[in-house]
Amino acid sequence: MNRISSQYNNTNTQYFLRQQEVKEARKNAQIGTQSRITALRDDPIAAGHLVRYQSFLSRVNVFEKNAQTLSDNFQVREGYINQNLQIMQRVRELAVQGANGINTPDDLKNMAVEVDELLKELIQNANAVGPDGNSLFAGTRNNVTAFEISMGDVDGAGEPLITNVNYNGNISINKVEVDENAYLDVDYSGNKIFWAEPQVYMGQRDLSAWQANEDSVIAVDGVEIQINRGDNVYALAAKINDSGVAIKASIDPLSRGLNLRTTDAHQMWLVDKSGTVLEDIGMIKDKSQLPPYNVGNSVSVSGGSLFDTVIALRDAMYRGDNESIGGRVLGTIDEGMNNLTARLAKSGSDYERAQNNIQRQSLNNLNVTQLVSREGDIDMSEAITDLKMLDYVHQATLSNAGRMYSSTLLDYMR
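The structure corresponding to this sequence follows.
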């Protein structure tokens, strides 16, 4: 029951006018933002869906950008690898010409000059920097020069030449998220791409009586392996073989030492993460020495990089050693080119996978945008119609109120 008073009509009219104004303001806000949900109470269920869709859409945009960045880097990197493969083709041609035995020592020296220039070009490409200013082939140490050179005297040459090329990066792998809980492994390790042949470590220390003194952890090519107290060298070799790394461990039947051989062309990487297992068995030096140049003094190492192979070819040409050119040098050149071709194929496949992720995220972007539009966007034609109706009701209310209170001062003048 409402109490009727002299202020009832005015109060009631003002109340409903304010309600109309609120509805008009809400509708104007929806049209201005082009969203039908300006507050959670407008549609709680749709608002919940909309928040989740918008969150997923932002992640999809990040995934697409990540895949696009990777695609660009893969494309640039593939170009440098392909150029080095072409350089190695020319190096092989010179090696075949130098091994035929009909060239004079002066001819070989002239060919060595070209080989040395090709070597410099190889190193320049290996030290390439991407469009973002980061080194392309230094692993995750992308702010350093991937390969450092050492100069020295070479028999037959009249000036100091490059005698050694050392890897200055690391073997860490970046995982870049390109979808929900899906990652692309990004491996920029130059000591894998520019390696020529499998590397072999042959330990000369007798380990037949060795046992681990404590629980330890070693890292082989970045993979951590748990060594338990009391493990002998046979258990150590078995754990390395079972770890999944591209290295085969064995015990030398003569020296009783540990031998390690990579199953593909790359440089080995050994670290004592905790404890001193690798140091105790003589495979590496103390922890003050960083890999990959921490190999123990008693370990015999074989297997080199593409640069080592080209340096060996150049030096053999300066010496006039046709036998070396046509033997081991030519063989390692072929192995290095095979590895470079395999790495080029891997880079190309990485690029294609990145492109597939870009296409998928672009499609996801479109689909999720449609979901966001369905839940949150306003129907403009319907909203404008509703606004016109509200305005009409508002004007009608004002008109009725005006007629209800039509009395003026003139009505009281007689």
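The CA atoms of residues 10 and 327 lie 110 Å apart.
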